[in-house]
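seq:
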Amino acid sequence: MTGSYLVADSTVAVIHLKRPAQRIVCLSASGLDALAELGLEPIGVVASAIATHPDLYGTRAESWPALGSWMLPNFRKIRQLQPDLILGWQFPHRFYRGWLADIAPTYLMGGSGYEEAILRLLDIACLTQRITEAEAAIARLEQELTDYRCRLRQEPMQTVLMMGGTSLSIYSDRYAVEAITGTLGSVIQQFTHFPWVKPHPHRGESGLVYLSLAQIAAVNPDVIFVQSYGDALSRRLHHHRYWRSLKAIKTQRVFEVDQFWHWGNGTRLMRLMLRQLLPLVYPHALQDSPGG
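struct:
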């Protein structure tokens, strides 16, 4: 079937295909999220642990050609695969756009939050002629959000923090905190008190704000989710005076979570993480939920 398949990506570059893309190279986790929602598989990916997650592609992803890293894709291997569409992310792939676009039309994603994730999914659905699948994925997410609203309407709202860090975060006292503009922040704020606002949304990563432990202690969240790079951050902070003063520490409501919640910005990730996180925030109301 022939036609015209045209969208503008996050850099406002126009991607125009004469036929739906079938051979797709994926250079970002968000692209994998979208392809999984559309019932598609890439023909090659950069190194990404999220690809083999059981709720994405599982062991099937182990047979895909490896195309270098997110920061430095292998252009020679990408060309050998003869893709008809490449999915990348604004940073760092805009710096490689000339080389990538010389191989195949290249759609670069960017931004965070619910609306951006929906628009990306619809764009990729347009380029692959999978609008019906995209609408079904959006409907699934909306239905889950509606179900949570119904089940949690009588629950006292809990203050939730989602943070991440490394050893450097401890030394600098600067921790990455999911903001309301983040992909997960944009949805979990519907069910929790989520007061983490990025003061300058156009500086740095749009979905993150960087805070000290003193700033976190000033809010004193009821529940803390921690994403660690390396040894468990929550364990390493155990003796810090601000950390020990937190309500969530005293009530043992600090949870280390999968790293993959910061590896993508898509509708499937939203559903997976809400299923994992909300039963920990509201265990009595959601004790029979998936992951609860």
